[in-house]
Design brief:
Blueprint lengths: L1 E8 L11 E6 L3 H11 L3 E8 L4 H5 L6 H29 L4 H13 L15 E6 L5 E11 L3 E13 L4 E11 L5 E4 L24 E2 L6 E4 L3
Antiparallel strand pairs: 1-2, 1-3, 4-5, 4-9, 5-6, 6-7, 6-8, 7-10
Amino acid sequence: MRYIIHWGREADREKPARLTTFTAEEAETLEAARSQFLARHPDYYIEAIKPAGPNSFETYGMGAWTEEEQAQHREKLGKMYADQRAERSGIRERLLTYTPEEFAAESAYMLSREEPTQNAEGVHVGDILYSSWGWEQTNIDFYQVVGLRGKHTLILRELAAASGEDSHMTGLKRPRRDVFRNDKQYTVRSKFTDFSPDVPYILDPTLSTGVTLHPVEFGKLYDYSTYA
């Protein structure tokens, strides 16, 4: 028989009951379960004990498992998270390996950015911007400024991205400078606002939900998910 034990530490007995927790004990009787638990944990006290029911896991979560079962579950989770970290580390290493051509293009852009720009908000041709948006998932889109008109108008084209998705429906990506997804161009306005006095306020041209564009940092990877 499995019993759910509501327990706490003796040192915390005077603290609120929310500081106590639950675990399961397998024994022939309720008293045997009580004795087994306290024998292993002499510094604990039992707030309550009751037989486990068919909905105990829904009610108590992992508290409906024995200590051994909880330890096995934690070990399994630890391995899963370690595998995920290793997987993402591999993705990061691959995506942050730039080709000589990519470095050359970035160097040329950085030199060009030292020249004055006609844009009143300091936007330059070659700047790369990104948007982050989505419902129940996170999408990342990249755009490159390919032209300027007057003091506040930008011409954008959408960029392709280098990306890698892990086994947990999440991934990382970065833009590929000068590699455009298609020939379509977008005209957008830039401005400073009370909410954005230092970074130009620019709306994503493909969305109607007020999503804004932000400057991309070279060497930074951006998180996305296919289902959140």
